């Protein structure tokens, strides 16, 4: 195929995380070579325009064969406008063809696996992405609506469709630049889903398997994305039955009873002795409030607020000026708003509360400016592979002066007679830590982000297995 017979679509991704050349390990593509792959629509090339320890950039260049694309097209004879099959923007603009090439070429990187550098694959690193020609007839604001909720900073440049004919107006093709600190696998999955969404077209017939592809690539972020309906609709080519199926399955992710995310055992296990006046949940909230009072925190975030029980008590503290209640679940926030009586609050009361939908594994500027952040029975609901993203968001980006983390003590589980041996306290728990494991995690996080940490028991402190709940109190270290 000669140069005259094809056109190219380009995407570049760069990092400055030292040593930057390790990007080659994450992508499983050596920086000193050009890698070429045969795709149904042409040929994909991976190469590195720059590869130093200070900065490394990888480019994905897709050579599209317009004639070959039509030759392999499935459909009824004469389908569509015959000339339009050959004269269109598919060989020039980022679309589902680039997304497919991205997945084929970087398939292993998209899973987050890297045996050579597993710690780097799990880490959020600075990334810059440039897609010079993005088709977006919905306007220049759509890339921001899609990427900013995921933690990206978005810069969009536009220009006239034809500089010599101003009357034709703005071009629908955008120059999009993304920058942010994310895991590489996250970035690739964002692009895989959202490039076709921006373009709002696919070069192949969309079937039921596309729902599974969408939910796999968007597993960690799509359910909480404010544009999830639009993303599903466009990704699935506006096929109503597929869109309904995808949204219904996303709703299942968002349908856990909020009160069940509070170290629950489904009523099967009694966490407190029958004669104890306070439940373990009440003791947790009491311990958190006591620490907040001792630090005179004024602006407090209840991150992972669930049904709002802690937020309600925080609002009852006169010394707390503002409460930010955040949760990834829209359903939980609706319940919290109802239980807090938001609609019945006075203007002065309402001004003290902000309810937001947010995921703690993505940067959100609304989480900044807090004196204290509380993660009460939250971390154990996060996949271990996502904990580094939570750490980067809470301790690195939001960086409040005080962070309180409560989590179950797995050693104490043997004291629950009706809990099967080896079972976790709740079906949604991804893990439960021993006291030593929490101390190891908390010590590392504190050292990496400039905090000191101390540990407190919550509930009866059994001399053999410790308390049922453990509390880590992180205080930002003050420079001498």
Automatic annotation (TrEMBL):
Top EC category: transferase
Residue span(s) of domain Hen1 N-terminal: 9-251
GO molecular function: metal ion binding; RNA binding; small RNA 2'-O-methyltransferase activity
Domain Methyltransferase small: 289-341
Needed co-factor(s): Mg(2+)
Entry keyword annotation includes Magnesium: yes
InterPro entries named among the record's database cross-references: 3'-RNA_MeTfrase_Hen1_bac, Hen1, Hen1_N, Hen1_N_sf, SAM-dependent_MTases_sf, Small_mtfrase_dom
EC number: 2.1.1.386
Catalytic activity: small RNA 3'-end nucleotide + S-adenosyl-L-methionine = small RNA 3'-end 2'-O-methylnucleotide + S-adenosyl-L-homocysteine + H(+)
UniProt keywords, alphabetically: Magnesium, Metal-binding, Methyltransferase, RNA-binding, RNA-mediated gene silencing, S-adenosyl-L-methionine, Transferase
Record keyword Transferase present: yes
Top-rank taxon: Bacteria
GO biological process, one term: RNA methylation
Pfam families hit by this protein: Hen1_L (PF12623), MTS (PF05175)
Similarity comment: Belongs to the methyltransferase superfamily. HEN1 family.
Protein name from the UniProt record: Small RNA 2'-O-methyltransferase
Organism: Frankia alni (strain DSM 45986 / CECT 9034 / ACN14a)
Record lineage: Bacteria, Bacillati, Actinomycetota, Actinomycetes, Frankiales
């Amino acid at each position: 195929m000669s140069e005259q017979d094809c056109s190219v679509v380009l995407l570049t991704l760069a990092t400055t995380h030292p040593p930057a050349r390790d990007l080659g390990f994450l992508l499983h593509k050596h920086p000193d070579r050009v890698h070429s792959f045969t795709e149904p629509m042409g040929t994909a090339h991976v190469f590195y325009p720059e590869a130093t320890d200070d900065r490394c950039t990888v480019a994905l260049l897709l050579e599209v064969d317009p004639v070959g694309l039509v030759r392999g097209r499935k459909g009824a004879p004469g389908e569509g406008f015959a000339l339009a099959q050959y004269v269109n923007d598919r060989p020039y603009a980022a679309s589902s063809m680039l997304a497919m090439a991205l997945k084929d070429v970087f398939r292993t990187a998209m899973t987050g696996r890297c045996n050579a550098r597993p710690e780097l694959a799990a880490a959020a690193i600075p990334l810059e992405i440039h897609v010079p020609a993005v088709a977006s007839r919905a306007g220049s604001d759509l890339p921001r609506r899609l990427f900013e909720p995921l933690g990206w900073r978005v810069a969009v440049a536009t220009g006239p469709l034809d500089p010599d004919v101003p009357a034709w107006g703005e071009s629908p093709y955008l120059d999009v630049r993304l920058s942010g600190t994310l895991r590489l696998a996250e970035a690739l999955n964002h692009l895989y889903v959202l490039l076709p969404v921006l373009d709002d077209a696919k070069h192949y017939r969309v079937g039921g398997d596309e729902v599974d592809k969408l939910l796999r690539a968007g597993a960690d972020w799509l359910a909480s994305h404010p544009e999830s309906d639009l993303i599903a609709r466009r990704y699935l080519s506006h096929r109503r039955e597929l869109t309904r199926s995808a949204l219904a399955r996303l709703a299942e992710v968002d349908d856990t009873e909020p009160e069940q995310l509070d170290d629950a055992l489904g009523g099967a296990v009694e966490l407190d002795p029958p004669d104890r006046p306070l439940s373990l949940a009440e003791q947790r909230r009491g311990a958190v409030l006591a620490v907040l009072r001792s630090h005179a925190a004024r602006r407090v975030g209840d991150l992972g607020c669930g049904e709002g029980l802690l937020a309600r008590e925080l609002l009852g503290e006169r010394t707390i000026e503002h409460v930010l209640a955040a949760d990834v679940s829209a359903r939980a926030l609706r319940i919290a708003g109802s239980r807090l009586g938001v609609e019945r609050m006075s203007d002065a009361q309402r001004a003290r509360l902000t309810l937001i939908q947010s995921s703690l594994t993505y940067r959100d500027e609304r989480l900044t400016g807090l004196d204290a952040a509380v993660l009460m029975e939250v971390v154990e609901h996060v996949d271990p592979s996502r904990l580094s993203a939570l750490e980067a968001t809470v301790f690195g980006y939001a960086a409040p002066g005080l962070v309180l983390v409560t989590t179950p003590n797995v050693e104490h589980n043997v004291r629950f007679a009706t809990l099967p041996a080896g079972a976790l306290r709740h079906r949604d728990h991804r893990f439960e830590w021993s006291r030593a494991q929490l101390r190891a995690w908390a010590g590392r996080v504190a050292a990496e982000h400039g905090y000191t940490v101390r540990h407190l028991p919550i509930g009866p402190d059994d001399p053999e297995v410790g308390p049922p709940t453990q509390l880590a109190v992180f205080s930002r270290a003050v420079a001498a």
